[in-house]
């Protein structure tokens, strides 16, 4: 996924707070501060220590909630180009490990939970010793409170997204779009509530269908599904384009 977010400015914090998750072990999402001016290569080196992955083969994905925003695949780019706000999640996938463990011809090395618990060189032991992630009670309570507040805000915003209402959609890395709400509810295979929007212009990704299931109907590339947090309901008439001023 390509594209970048807004650059950092002098009036904005030079750090972001993001949670970290890993698909290969028991590390739950925990929050840490990251400097916006660090390169993606430096970020991977830091995540290598935190997750036990390999910086040279890991893939880092940037999420907001359950929505994938970017694949951080440019090692020379600065983190601030991709992430300029808190509340994001860095998900680490080690490409090499994924390949190896998916290959049935390679014998898997497995440890019981008790054996893993006794190891001093494990990610779990590192987190315990440094009181990170789920082993930091205060941090976990703060995360739980943030989740609760976010869930309440999503529910509040979703209640305002009445079908056939006009709206404006703002998603990081995308232009602000106007349209009409056509769906409010869950999507098969996804968690949470999504708002289906028919945009005024072909700036969407679908025709109101996801994975072959139709939730509403519109022209191709005029439809999209977003978080209620990205939707502002109001009097947003279609934007007029003055063709006489175009070259």
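-> sequence recovered:
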């Amino acid at each position: 996924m390509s594209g970048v977010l807004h650059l950092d400015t002098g009036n904005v914090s030079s750090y972001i707070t993001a949670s970290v998750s890993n698909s290969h072990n028991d590390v739950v999402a925990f929050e840490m501060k990251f400097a916006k001016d660090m390169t993606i290569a430096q970020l991977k080196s830091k995540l290598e220590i935190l997750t036990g992955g390999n910086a040279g083969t890991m893939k880092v994905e940037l999420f907001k909630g359950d929505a994938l925003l970017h694949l951080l695949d440019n090692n020379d780019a600065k983190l601030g180009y991709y992430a300029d706000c808190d509340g994001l999640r860095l998900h680490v996938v080690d490409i090499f490990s994924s390949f190896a463990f998916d290959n049935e011809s390679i014998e898997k090395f497995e440890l019981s939970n008790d054996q893993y618990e006794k190891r001093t060189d494990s990610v779990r032991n590192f987190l315990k010793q440094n009181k990170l992630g789920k082993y930091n009670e205060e941090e976990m309570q703060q995360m739980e409170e943030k989740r609760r507040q976010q869930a309440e805000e999503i529910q509040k915003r979703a209640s305002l997204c009445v079908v056939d209402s006009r709206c404006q959609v703002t998603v990081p890395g995308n232009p602000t779009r106007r349209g009409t709400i056509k769906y409010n509810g869950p999507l098969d295979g996804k968690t949470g509530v999504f708002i289906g929007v028919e945009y005024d212009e072909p700036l969407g990704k679908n025709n109101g269908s996801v994975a072959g299931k139709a939730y509403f109907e519109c022209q191709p590339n005029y439809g999209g599904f977003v978080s209620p947090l990205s939707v502002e309901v109001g009097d947003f008439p279609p934007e007029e384009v003055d063709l006489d001023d175009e070259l």
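The radius of gyration is 21 Å.
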